[in-house]
């Protein structure tokens, strides 16, 4: 596919990297030669220095042949204008990043009037993901499938966890209709069998019905309780969207923000929160705000270093549910090594959503990708497909299907039933099918069949 990305910031670069790796013809446009240098040096793509709203620049990028134009500059208005111009000159599909809360209530109208095919708000998406993490304590990540019916949850095994040295068979997860679907050990992806033995520091991914996951986590000793008190540092857009979500469950919210003028704005836009002007990395301030009594601590400043420092202090103060926003990918390993497990990356959330959309465009006649998440440090993917009659293995028991190595059919959702499949189960038309795989660029359920054959 011919894809044009306008804006070579953090999100633009991440998209260019992943989309070019999937075999797409990618062109990046940015006004800054400095911003383009990293992409030129590291990626197999074409770069154009210029304004993505200008006709001559769009024509140089062959916008008339573009399958998708993605506008991710730092200006919402410029992104909308880029998409409008791109459609006028022949682009088939357009995607715009629109972040300002003032536009939040107008997105449906903007999509229609400007003929934008997809609008994404990274901060709002990040807030939704954080709200899921708050509901389940002592976990690293929470992803949702089948309109929230199914959850994929990861957690780190600690040295005092009773499952160390036990096998999956010993744990009896079938009683809870839970499947251990993959394990990260020493930065490797493992697909566990019933005899798999858990070790300290394994990162485990389980899938099942949302309610069952909560019960199973309690069984594992990861006690769950209602969130009553939340402390957030950083008063940006994610905080705005998040407080609206948290407020629905009745939690008391405190927000620490350095900038005094920003605090005044927060007082008006977030009347449900207690706004504190101060430095969220200062130990004395955090202690004075009763940090150890908090049910959740969320670090959302614009500086990764501040988020990491504050999160470490929260962990050392006994807060079990600590969530940290990280922008720089190379910090992920550092964060993991110091014990911060729940990490949010708005740019990766954005990239996942857009990659899912583009893979869906490649496969219009096939099984549509409903959800896509990169897991295990981006070494594997969890995908949800809507099954239609193009599937070669419809109504055939899974035990009779030859599936590629590195693929697990983790769950089948049929109407209101959630099936953790055995060899006798099968896929029907209309099912939602969730797979875990370390195979690259899967766009269709048929891609997981060995040699395209069934048996």
TrEMBL record:
Stored Gene3D superfamilies: NAD(P)-binding Rossmann-like Domain, Regulator of K+ conductance, C-terminal domain
GO CC, alphabetical: plasma membrane
One annotated GO molecular function: potassium ion transmembrane transporter activity
Residues annotated as signal peptide: none
Presence of the UniProt keyword Transport in the record: yes
Pfam (any one): TrkA_C
Residue stretches making up the RCK C-terminal domain: 140-222, 370-451
Boundaries of every RCK N-terminal domain copy: 1-120, 227-344
SUPFAM superfamilies to which the protein is assigned, alphabetical: NAD(P)-binding Rossmann-fold domains, TrkA C-terminal domain-like
Alphabetic keyword roster: Ion transport, NAD, Potassium, Potassium transport, Transport
The protein, known as: Trk system potassium uptake protein TrkA
């Amino acid at each position: 596919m011919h894809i044009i990305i306008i804006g070579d910031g953090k999100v633009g670069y991440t998209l260019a990297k992943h989309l070019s790796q999937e075999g797409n013809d990618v062109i990046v446009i940015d006004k800054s030669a400095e911003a383009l240098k990293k992409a030129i040096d590291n990626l197999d793509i074409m770069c154009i220095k210029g304004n993505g709203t200008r006709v001559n620049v769009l024509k140089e990028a062959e916008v008339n042949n573009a399958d998708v134009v993605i506008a991710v500059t730092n200006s919402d208005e410029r992104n909308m204008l880029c998409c409008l111009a791109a459609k006028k000159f022949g682009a088939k599909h357009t995607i715009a990043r629109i972040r300002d809360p003032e536009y939040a209530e107008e997105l449906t109208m903007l999509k229609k009037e400007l003929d934008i095919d997809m609008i994404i708000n990274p901060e709002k998406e990040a807030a939704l993901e954080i709200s899921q993490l708050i509901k389940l304590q002592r976990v690293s990540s929470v992803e949702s499938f089948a309109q929230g019916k199914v959850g994929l949850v990861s957690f780190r095994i600690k040295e005092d966890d009773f499952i160390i040295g036990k096998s999956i068979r010993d744990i009896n997860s079938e009683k809870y209709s839970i499947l251990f679907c993959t394990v990260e050990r020493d930065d490797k992806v493992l697909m566990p069998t019933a005899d798999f033995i858990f070790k300290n520091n394994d990162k485990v991914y389980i899938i099942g019905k949302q309610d069952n996951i909560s019960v199973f986590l309690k069984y594992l000793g990861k006690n769950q309780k209602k969130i009553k008190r939340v402390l957030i540092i950083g008063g940006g857009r994610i905080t705005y969207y998040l407080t609206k979500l948290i407020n629905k469950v009745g939690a008391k919210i405190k927000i620490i923000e350095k900038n005094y003028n920003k605090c005044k704005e927060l007082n008006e836009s977030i009347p449900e929160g207690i706004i504190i002007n101060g430095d969220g990395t200062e130990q004395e301030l955090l202690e004075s705000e009763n940090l150890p009594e908090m049910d959740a601590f969320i670090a959302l400043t614009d500086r990764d270093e501040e988020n990491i420092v504050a999160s470490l202090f929260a962990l050392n103060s006994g807060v079990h549910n600590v969530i940290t926003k990280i922008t720089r990918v190379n910090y992920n390993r550092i964060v993991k090594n110091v014990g911060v497990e729940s990490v949010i990356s708005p740019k990766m959330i954005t990239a996942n959503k857009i990659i899912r959309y583009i893979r869906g465009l490649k496969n219009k006649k096939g099984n549509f990708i409903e959800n896509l998440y990169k897991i295990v440090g981006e070494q594997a993917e969890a995908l949800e497909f809507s099954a239609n009659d193009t599937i070669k293995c419809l109504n055939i028991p899974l035990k009779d299907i030859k599936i590629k190595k590195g693929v697990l059919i983790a769950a089948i959702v049929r109407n209101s039933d959630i099936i953790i499949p055995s060899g006798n189960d099968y896929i029907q038309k209309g099912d939602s099918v969730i797979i875990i795989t370390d195979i690259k660029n899967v766009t269709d359920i048929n891609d997981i069949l060995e040699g395209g054959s069934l048996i």
